[in-house]
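Please check this:
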Amino acid sequence: MTVSKNLTKDWNENDWERFRHWIHILLKERPVKITFTKKDGTERVMNCTLDPSVLPLVESVQDKREKDKEKDYIAVYDIDLKAWRSFVIKNVKEFEFTLD
């Protein structure tokens, strides 16, 4: 079964925080196709995950600037590009995943 959801821009900060927490948990469990608007205004569709069994082994490096942006951005592993990418949580337009 595949689940797809369009997001509303009428959410308040609490709604976005709950969504951020929920999508982070979902990404740890399975691949998610996320459609979002990039900083340059173009739309991007990314198949991504945070599932530890899929992630490459890398040393964790995080500077202060990254910590300041932490609530606005989600860093994910792009399955197709085999590289780390990030997106602004409030720029997510749609997401899709498959239930086992």
